[in-house]
Amino acid sequence: MPEALLQIETDAGSGVRRLVLDRPACGNALSAALVAALSEAVNACVRDDVRCLVIEGAGRHFCTGVDLSALDRETDDSLLARFIRIELLLQAVHRAPFETVAVAHGRVAGAGADLFAACRRRLIRDDASFAFPGAAGFGLLLGTRRLAALVGGDTAQDWIRSGRWIDADEALAAGLAQARIDAARNRDAPAAHAPDAGTQALLDQAMRTAQADDPDLALLARSAARPGLKQRIQEYAARVRAARQQ
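User: That's the sequence. What structure does it adopt?
Assistant: Structure tokens below.
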């Protein structure tokens, strides 16, 4: 039986669609198949004139990053291709012509934190914590400019260079998260007051900065294309395992 990847729910009356990452046993880590499913789901929202897209995670965590459980079977080139597809997904979410809302809980790490940061509205539960370990851990730049645009260059530098965990209070104070949400009513609040598609397009035009997507893709490709990506990730994973055993 194929692995369940996404729960997709649509409320046609309000124009809201919910995508629930559904790999709770592995912290909703982004496998290649899940990234492909998310990309297709975002594209379907465009085709279906969805008014608001809400992204959540099943189980204990929103998303713990990229799924590297089959790292032994990867190569530098296959890893580069996977990260490029993730960046293209992040760009599609960030530039979507409709409201995008992330509701995060538990661990929100790596590419999962980048997915959260790519959404226009970013809501958390009290237990949410964030980490951006890619650059310090294995030399990968993913979502860096989007994060700096949200929290400022100095804060982004601190978080990225240290790779440390950021708790809910710090995320809110810095602007990564915008508000706490009560878990009991998180199915209603994100959809409230979402603008229609025409209004959203005008709002995007008014608010959009000169920041283009191509530099993000170029930075990612240059950081990932350096020889030894797989080895760097393996060494990082070994350090994480050792730290957990201490």
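The two ends are 38 Å apart (CA to CA).
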